[in-house]
């Protein structure tokens, strides 16, 4: 209100005087505070919160899984049998008396016992058999990002039973599937859309790998890249990075900051050695092809065994125990140092460490080259038997180990043959690790970044790029994960409705269809067109009721326009058979995509759809197709 005794006009005068000054100031502020905020802070907060939750849970579950696994392996495998596996520098040490005899009879049967327990657990969740990576990929593409809750307890139990008893496989595959289950369950309980749930599932995959392999950026890239052969899930990258970083931080707080292979020396780049890396790519490609073929052979052999499928991991464990016992009895006298384990059982990172840095107990020279080659062959057989029989063990670690062993052997042989001290076998081992897994898993970028993170530098960037490129080309027909589609357009979750719907799914069956006879006059056709106001194309039937042509209302108008009207000329005496066009008929089971293309090519607005008896069930018109396209994404979200 104005002050007492003053007129309203006098009271408003100062404000009116300030308007010319205040208006420019307000306009200037509007530039910085627009009506619609440029930053989607609400969306950012929602995404970060969900991804952080998945990363935290995956880090905790992964750390708990790894902690229990190491203690079970130490007690069941090492203390009970006297087997002392090779360990990488970053793996938790466990002292085993190297002068104690290995209890061969226990080592022969313990992997079988663990395999039986793993198989028994897998009865409740068959998708937990095998590595876990392919099952996670299949859940993303073919099950809308749904992973059953029981996987969250069944996979850790099965993997601990397999790996704790000496199964030749890795921990990353199980943690990939565990992380995928966590992302799926979080999305389900938060009532997120199918698209958000799938994104959290991918974030869980990256977090699970990061918690175990300790390469946060590489794990995030692997999660979005491993889903396809020639593509990646780009929209999940940021949630993957965040979840991976949090899981990595949780794992470091539990297990320490020591890198997996320790602090490695620098590997200077020598351009003159590039031809050697070309040769390495060929060797790695041959080894990867052999691994994939032996793996498939093992799956076929164990699938033919009589009895229930849950017993097959036990049979695989028995074969593995016999193979390892025979190998150690042969290799120990050859090495001559009484070493009890050579990285064949378990993930094999100790064997990879041997290829990178060597060992004090191993003579340098051709003995090292021969041993690394022998261990690569042994690891191929052992991992194929374990995973191929259905044991819950990952294929990531064996791939890294085999690639490192082949690369170390190749680099050592090149140094000896050429007499060049600048050739470092460790560099070839690291490059071999990346090229091997990149080639058979179709993850070139992730594998490159992972090895650079392991090295702590980008010294090997150029050799990595060259070797991976050649290996990827050579291994185009070799694929470790059969569930990988080639690209996003080949994935059911990204498929257009035109690629999945049938004509019978969209045609309006309740809408009546007016038809004509081929002997009807054009006057009858005109009357039918006027009576059916909402129909532009009319099926033309013969005496047997078969569709023999189509009559377009627009075409009929053209006939009369050329003839000067409906009352004179040849147009008035014509019959429907004279003006109809060739029939175009769809079955109700035909794909909508092909039908839409046919309508466009024939320049028709509609065409009849018939059932298995040949009866017309409706007309498929352009409106139906457009409506299916616009309604498709929403339907896809609800079905995911």
Walk me through the topology.
Blueprint: H1 8-32, H2 41-81, H3 104-122, H4 133-142, H5 151-164, H6 172-189, H7 194-213, H8 216-225, H9 237-255, H10 274-303, H11 312-335, H12 349-357, H13 366-388, H14 396-418, H15 425-441, H16 444-455, H17 461-474, H18 497-500, H19 503-506, E1 516-517, H20 522-531, E2 537-541, E3 547-552, H21 553-563, H22 569-573, H23 576-579, E4 581-582, E5 586-587, H24 592-602, E6 606-610, E7 616-621, H25 622-639
Parallel strand pairs: 1-2, 5-6
Antiparallel strand pairs: 2-3, 3-4, 6-7
Can you put this structure into words, describing what you see?
The structure is a single chain. This protein is mainly alpha-helical and 640 residues long. The chain folds into three domains: 213 residues, Clc chloride channel (Orthogonal Bundle); 223 residues, Clc chloride channel (Orthogonal Bundle); 143 residues, CBS-domain. It is built from 25 helices and seven strands. It has a four-stranded mixed β-sheet. A three-stranded mixed β-sheet has the order 5-6-7. It is elongated. The protein starts with 7 loop residues before the first helix and ends with a helix. The C terminus is likely disordered.
């Amino acid at each position: 209100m104005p002050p007492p005794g003053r007129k309203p006009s006098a009271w408003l005068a100062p404000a009116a005087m300030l308007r010319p000054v205040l208006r420019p100031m307000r306009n200037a502020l509007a530039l910085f505070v627009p009506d619609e905020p440029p930053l989607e802070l609400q969306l950012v907060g929602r995404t970060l919160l969900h991804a952080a939750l998945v990363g935290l849970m995956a880090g905790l579950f992964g750390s708990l899984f790894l902690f229990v696994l190491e203690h079970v392996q130490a007690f069941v495998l090492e203390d009970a049998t006297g087997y002392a596996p090779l360990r990488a520098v970053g793996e938790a040490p466990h002292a085993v008396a190297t002068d104690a005899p290995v209890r061969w009879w226990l080592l022969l049967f313990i992997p079988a016992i663990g395999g039986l327990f793993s198989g028994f657990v897998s009865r409740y969740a068959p998708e937990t058999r095998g590595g876990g990576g392919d099952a996670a990929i299949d859940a993303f593409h073919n099950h809308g990002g749904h992973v059953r809750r029981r996987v969250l307890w069944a996979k850790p139990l099965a993997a601990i039973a397999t790996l704790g008893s000496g199964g030749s496989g890795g921990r990353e595959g199980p943690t990939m599937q565990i992380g995928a289950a966590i992302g799926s369950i979080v999305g389900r309980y938060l009532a997120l859309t199918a698209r958000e749930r799938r994104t959290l599932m991918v974030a869980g995959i990256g977090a699970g790998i990061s918690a175990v392999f300790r390469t946060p950026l590489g794990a995030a890239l692997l999660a979005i890249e491993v889903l396809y052969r020639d593509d990646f899930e780009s929209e999940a990258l940021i949630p993957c990075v965040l979840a991976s970083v949090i899981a990595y931080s949780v794992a470091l707080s539990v297990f320490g900051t020591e890198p997996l292979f320790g602090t490695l020396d620098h590997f200077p780049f020598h351009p003159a050695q590039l031809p050697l890396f070309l040769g390495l790519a060929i060797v790695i490609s041959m080894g990867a092809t052999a691994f994939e073929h032996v793996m498939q052979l093992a799956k076929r052999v164990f699938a033919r065994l009589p009895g229930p499928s849950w017993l097959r991991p036990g049979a695989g464990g028995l074969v593995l125990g016999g193979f390892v016992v025979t190998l150690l009895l042969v290799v120990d006298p050859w090495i001559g140092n009484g070493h009890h384990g050579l990285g064949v059982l378990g993930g094999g990172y100790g064997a990879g460490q041997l290829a990178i840095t060597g060992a004090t107990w191993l003579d340098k020279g051709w003995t090292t080259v021969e041993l690394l080659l022998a261990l690569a062959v042994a690891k191929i057989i052992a991992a194929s038997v374990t995973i191929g029989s259905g044991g819950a063990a990952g294929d990531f670690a064996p791939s890294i180990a085999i690639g490192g062993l082949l690369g170390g052997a190749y680099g050592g042989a090149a140094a000896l043959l050429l007499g060049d001290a600048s050739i470092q076998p460790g560099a070839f081992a690291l490059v071999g690790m990346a090229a091997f897994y990149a080639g058979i898993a179709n993850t070139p970028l992730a594998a490159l970044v992972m090895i650079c993170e392991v090295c702590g530098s980008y010294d090997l960037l150029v050799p990595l790029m060259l070797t991976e490129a050649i290996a990827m080309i050579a291994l185009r027909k070799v694929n470790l994960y059969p569930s990988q589609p080639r690209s996003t357009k080949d994935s059911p979750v990204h498929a257009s409705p035109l690629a999945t719907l049938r004509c019978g799914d969209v045609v309006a069956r309740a809408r009546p269809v007016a038809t004509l006879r081929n002997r009807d006059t054009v006057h009858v056709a005109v009357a039918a067109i006027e009576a059916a106001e909402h129909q532009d194309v009319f099926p033309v039937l013969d005496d047997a009721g078969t569709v023999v042509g189509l009559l377009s209302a627009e075409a009929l108008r053209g006939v009369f326009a050329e003839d000067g009207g409906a009352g004179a000329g040849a147009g008035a005496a014509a019959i429907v058979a004279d003006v109809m066009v060739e029939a175009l008929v769809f079955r109700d089971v035909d794909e909508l995509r092909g039908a839409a293309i046919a309508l466009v090519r024939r320049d028709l607005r509609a065409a009849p759809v018939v059932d298995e008896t040949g009866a017309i069930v409706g007309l498929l018109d352009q409106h139906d197709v457009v409506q299916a396209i616009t309604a498709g994404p929403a339907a896809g979200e609800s079905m995911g």
